[in-house]
Every structure is written in C-alpha cells, then in structure tokens.
Write a structure and sequence with these properties.
The chain is built from nine helices and six strands; from the N terminus they run H-H-H-E-H-E-H-H-H-E-H-E-E-E-H. The chain is of the alpha/beta class.
C-alpha cells in the first residue's frame, strides 16, 4: 500500500515490487486510495471506522485478498501485506484485524496498530507518539480480533533513523506490540548489520522469527531501495524512495520465501 500523495502504479514501480514479481513469479495486488476517501491519498490508518474488522477500508482490503486468491487460485497460507507510511500503518491494521489472512507483514516507516486512538490524534501519534506498555500495545491488537488464538503474522519493520515525518521510535513501539502478541521477549536473538544498517531478529517461543527490524542509518521518510540489476537490487530512486543500498522489497520477499 502506497503512502500519502502517491499512487499504486508508481508505488509498484518505485519499490521494485513489480520488478521482483516478474523475476520471482508471484502475484501482487496494489490497492489505490481514492481522493473521495482521503484528499491527500492516504490510507486511513487513523480512522476508527476504517481500522476495524468488517468495516471501512480494512474490510475492502480483506475483500481484495479474497478476490485475488480466487482469481489466481492462490495459496491462502502464503499471503503477505506491506506498505509505506500511511500504507505501513494500514499494514499493521490488516495484521491486527485479519491475522488469519496473512502469514507476515512489512511495515515501512509506519506505526503500531491503534496508535492514533492511544495518542488522541494521528498527528500526536506521528510526531510525538503514544506512551504505552508492551502489554497495552498488545491488547490493542488482540481487541481487533476478539477470541483469536493465532497464529499471528510475523512482522518486519524498516524505518529511517532520520525520519521526521513518522518518528523512528515507532519501530520500537511496533517491536513491543508484536513481540508481546507473539509471546516473545524483547531481547534480540540476532543483532548484526545488513548493507551497513543495524538489523535485529526477535524469535518467538517456537524459535521462528516473530519480529525483524532494519534501522536505516541516516535515512529520512521513505521506503529504501537499491537500484540495479544484481541479485539483491531492486527499486527506482526518487521522492520517498531513497537509495540506501538496501531494497526493502527484496529483503521482505526473501524473508517470505517468494523468490
């Protein structure tokens, strides 16, 4: 899902997602926000009516998943969701409201589920944040799908350390929210660097990666790309697609065994 002021076609090209889909032969749905729903072209990650199961944009996106699976005879156990900024916030929405539909999600420069409601407004959430314990963050996810006992989608977070549009501390909030949901501790089992950027993996009780993070050193607001034709390269550099020698689409696709 694209960010504010973006469109689906440009996002598919800029991220390198379409490039990888052609290379690896997987199916992609690129939702397009309508100006009638949001004048800035943002997905409404902050509106209560759009982030609840069976309502608004969340329900519409869930229907897109079902339709695509039917159209391509897809494997319902291998469905993934990802987005940038407002699309990243909506990625967390879909993981929380429809966890049974997604094996994993990738939040890029996004926010934890229920942040706007916890902070009192989307802008306070984005620029200041919401002070919540891991348990309180996890409770917001569980409340989105009452009675659900799992499995929950795994999460990968990519966020620039110099992001002044959506504060980079939201990566920590997402780690707290989703490790808590998975029953994982918040001590990283893997801490290394990928293309010079700090990378961590938090494993759940089953030993599988529950949450994975990439802190893109010095990167502002956007989705990281690494243009080129080499194996791990993808994307087209441009506004909100900074070239930082790491392509988010490739890292996510590799984690999800799409290639």
């Amino acid at each position: 899902m694209h960010g504010c002021t973006q469109n689906a076609a440009g996002y598919g090209t800029g991220t390198g997602r379409q490039q990888l889909a052609d290379r690896w032969k997987f199916s992609v749905v690129l939702p397009q926000q309508q100006s009638a729903n949001n004048l800035s072209g943002c997905f409404n990650w902050f509106r209560t009516a759009d982030i609840q199961r069976g309502r608004g944009e969340a329900a519409s996106l869930a229907q897109m998943v079902d339709r695509q699976l039917a159209d391509v005879s897809g494997d319902a156990s291998r469905v993934y969701v990802t987005g940038l900024s407002a699309g990243g916030g909506t990625t967390a929405v879909m993981m929380a409201a429809y966890p049974e539909k997604f094996a994993a999600g990738g939040v890029v420069a996004g926010l934890p589920y229920g942040c706007a409601q916890a902070a009192g407004s989307p802008y306070v959430c984005m620029y200041v944040g919401a002070s919540r314990t891991p348990g309180q963050w996890g409770d917001r996810v569980r409340a989105a799908r009452p009675g659900y006992t799992g499995p929950w989608p795994a999460l990968t977070v990519l966020h620039g350390t110099a992001d002044h549009t959506v504060k980079s501390a939201h990566m920590t909030d997402l780690v707290e929210q989703w490790t808590e949901v998975h029953g994982a501790d918040r001590t990283a089992d893997v801490s290394d660097t990928v293309a010079g950027h700090p990378h961590q993996v938090f494993r759940g009780p089953d030993g599988k990666a529950a949450v994975e993070t990439y802190a893109l050193t010095g990167m502002g607001h956007g989705r990281p790309v690494d243009p080129g034709s080499a194996g791990e390269q993808c994307g087209v550099a441009g506004a909100y697609f900074p070239d930082v020698n790491l392509c988010a689409a490739h890292r996510l696709g590799s984690a999800w065994a799409l290639g």
